[in-house]
Specification:
By secondary structure, the chain is of the alpha+beta class. The protein has helices spanning 39-47, 91-104, 114-130, 143-150, 168-177, 179-185, 219-223, and strands at 2-6, 10-11, 15-16, 22-23, 30-36, 54-59, 67-72, 111-112, 154-163, 192-199, 207-216. The strands form three sheets. It has a five-stranded antiparallel sheet, covered by helices on one side. Strands 8-10-11-9 form a four-stranded mixed sheet, with helices on both faces. α3 (114-130) packs across α4 (143-150). It is elongated. The N and C termini lie far apart (68 Å).
Length: 230
């Protein structure tokens, strides 16, 4: 008898009941059980289903290619695939580490901006509510639209979004490794920074990030009517 947990590939020994019959209580979070002819069939059923976080595979007889598959959603306490809350986002630590990174690249530091944090929060929540990852809001807004709604009038602006990372350290590393996202982190003109994380354990990606790097427009140019956001 063989028992596997995918993707973690754990091998466990189930209990043996009366007359040698295997007794296995599916772990918390199991929401579907079915028979399959291969481990790949079990894996594909999980990977092709929204909400499946892992699959357990039981092979009652190792001489026969027949498996029992247990799809798991990770939503119950005690599930080996349990979806846990993210590390709390410390925005002060985030801007400090960002500025250290910018300094290594001979760039000036940025400061936290409440309006950019608000614009980031609005978009991160929108993505979480709809289980999506996009720079376009469900109302059709771009990041610059969301900034203007908070009263932030920009001269330069860039946005990073991400999903699935459960800590600032992980998302910061992912953005550094992505050329387009890294370009925003190292935007030379940026003077302000805002970031937000929204957690929704029932949503597709669970952890949703939005970040804005920007610099404000010269108010004198706005007052002179030389800049319009219409």
């Amino acid at each position: 008898m063989r028992f596997l947990a995918i993707p973690f590939a754990l091998i466990l020994t189930p209990q043996i009941g009366m007359a040698g019959t295997p007794e296995y209580e599916p772990p918390p979070g199991t929401y579907q059980t079915f028979n399959a002819s291969s481990i790949d069939e079990c894996r594909e059923a999980c990977f092709g289903t929204t909400g499946c976080k892992g699959v357990f595979t039981l092979q009652p007889d190792t001489t026969i290619e027949t498996y029992v598959c247990y799809l798991n959603n990770g939503l119950e306490a005690g599930s080996p695939f349990e979806i846990l809350p993210p590390e709390p986002l410390d925005v002060q630590m985030a801007v400090t580490q960002l500025n250290i990174y910018r300094a290594k690249n001979n760039l000036a530091p940025v400061t936290l901006d409440k309006q950019l944090i608000l614009a980031s929060e609005v978009h991160a929540k929108d993505m979480a509510d709809h289980g999506m990852v996009s720079h376009t809001g469900t109302d059709g807004s771009a990041h610059t639209d969301r900034m203007l709604r908070t009263g932030y009038k920009y001269s330069y602006a860039g946005e990073n979004v991400a999903s699935g990372q459960n800590s600032w350290g992980k998302v910061f590393e992912a953005w550094q490794k992505s050329p387009g996202h890294n370009e925003n982190l190292l935007m030379p003109e940026a003077t302000n920074f805002g970031i937000a994380l929204v957690y929704d354990r029932t949503s597709q990606y669970h952890y949703y990030w939005a970040m804005i790097m920007a610099s404000p427009m010269d108010q004198a140019l706005i007052d002179a009517g030389l800049v319009s956001y219409e």
